[in-house]
Design a protein that fits this description.
- The structure holds 2 protein chains of 2 kinds.
- Chain A is an alpha+beta fold.
- Helix content of chain A is about 25%, strand content about 40%.
- In chain A, a hairpin with a 2-residue loop joins β3 and β4.
- Chain B is α+β, with helices and mostly antiparallel strands.
- Chain B has 5 helices and 5 strands, in the order αβααααββββ.
- In chain B, β3 and β4 form a beta hairpin.
- Chain B is elongated, with a radius of gyration of 17 Å.
- Classes of the chains: A alpha+beta, B alpha+beta.
- At the A-B interface, α1, α2, α3 and β2 of A face α2, α5 and β2 of B.
- β2 of chain A pairs antiparallel with β2 of chain B, so a sheet runs across the interface.
Chain lengths: ~140, ~140
């Protein structure tokens, strides 16, 4: 069993290998149904392509997070999330998500970990940038 | 950008309200779509043993609703230049009805393009704020 990735073991500045995922129409449809986003369907019709709700990228940065932190302690809390949507995401795109520990600090007895998120498509264009703030359990 | 938005660019203008009813089925569907099967979201027996006393929705599901509201308001501008800063304040649970509202707090020019800043919040049926957020979007 690997050592738990507790707060003290996390290195600010550490970057993790990219997590890749190819988006197909089925996964976009499934996501649209789950979040009940009818607006994106109207826009997709207007643009003539299967664009996804921009928040679909959150699925993949979360997967990237789970992949990078397989031994995280149980009980972490997702406290804040910043997302910048840079360009539309559509079926066929291959998203690569990069994570980096941006900062960590303690405040009022809580341990905060900030993780930079960057998602790029197959053309190396940034589709999403963000910052995830977690309260680390221990 | 649609005419509705062009007519409501002023500071203080209110966005159309969005209401969502949260059910365990919706939480399960989000887990399926996202691959996030954390038991706090999908295992009622496990979740009963936690401080939440039951399952809670994924925070990113609430975030998706906020994004939908902005997309509905500003159209495809949201897909290329939308920005969302969200603070998750309280858990959202099955049976909750959340109401998302917002208003324009600033209008700025950036490289000759108007950019709006919007304050958003989601409250549950008890009027408890569950999410606070600020959004930014450029209007081409």
């Amino acid at each position: 069993m690997q050592e738990e990735q507790n707060f003290d073991t996390l290195e600010v500045g550490k970057e993790y290998p990219p997590f890749s995922y190819q988006l197909d129409e089925g996964s976009i449809t499934k996501y649209i149904e789950a979040v009940e986003d009818n607006e994106i369907c109207a826009i997709a019709g207007k643009l003539g392509k299967k664009v996804a709700p921009p928040t679909i990228a959150s699925v993949y940065f979360l997967q990237a997070f789970y992949w990078a932190f397989p031994n995280r302690p149980k009980g972490n809390v997702h406290a804040k999330q910043r997302l910048c949507f840079c360009r539309p995401i559509q079926a066929g795109d291959v998203l690569k998500t990069y994570l980096k520990i941006a900062d960590k600090y303690e405040k009022k007895g809580r341990k905060y970990v900030l993780i930079d998120i960057l998602s790029k498509n197959q053309l190396d264009e940034t589709v999403l940038a963000g910052l995830m703030t977690l309260i680390w359990a221990r | 950008m649609n005419v509705h938005v062009k007519n409501q660019l002023d500071v203080g203008a209110k966005l159309p309200v969005l209401t969502k009813r949260i059910t365990q089925a919706k939480i399960n569907a989000y887990a399926e779509a996202s691959g996030d099967f954390n038991p706090i979201h999908v295992d009622e027996e496990f979740a009963k043993q936690t401080p939440f006393k039951g399952t809670i929705a994924h925070g990113l599901l609430s975030l998706a609703y906020l994004s939908e509201m902005m997309l509905s308001w500003v159209g495809e501008n949201w897909l290329s230049g939308g920005e969302l800063n969200v603070t998750f304040l309280s858990p959202v649970k099955p049976g909750d009805t959340i109401t998302i509202s917002g208003h324009v707090i600033a209008k700025e020019m950036s490289n000759g393009v108007p950019r709006l800043r919007v304050s958003l919040e989601a409250v549950n049926q008890n009027n408890n704020k569950v999410v606070a957020a600020e959004a930014g979007v450029s209007l081409n």
